[in-house]
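Mods, move this if it's the wrong board.
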Amino acid sequence: MSEQDAESYPGESLGLPRSGPGALASWRARIAALLLDRGASMIVAVFAFGAGVLREGGWRAWMILTVFFVQKALLTALAGGSFGQILARVRVVRLDGRQLGWWRAIARTAMICVVLPAVVIGAERRGLDDLVLGTVVVSRR
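Not the wrong board. C-alpha cells:
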C-alpha cells in the first residue's frame, strides 16, 4: 500500500472534503434517514387512510409507498433531502454543483422506491440511482 493510498478517504475522488459539511454521508446516517422516512410515511399513511394500509390489499396497500414517494420527492427537490435526511443531517447534491431540480428528485425517488438501485452500490457509497443521476449524499454538518 502506498503512502498516497493510506491518506485517501471516501469521497476524495469526487472532490468532497474528508469531513464536515459536504463530506460523504456515513452509512449510519443514510440508513437512519431511510428508516425515519419509512416510519414517518407509515404514520402519515395510517392517519390519512386508516390502519388498513398496514394489513389490507388493494389501493390501501400502496398508500405507505405513495406517501413515502411524495414526501421524499417533494422535500428533496425543495430542501435537498427528505424528512429523514433532514433529521439525519444529510442532503442530496449534484456533483456539478448545480441545483438538484424536480426531475432528478422525482427520478431518484422513483428508483429508490423500486429498491434495486439503492442496494446496487458503486464506488464512494453511491447507489445506482446516484450514479445514473450524477448525485451524491453528503453531510449537512
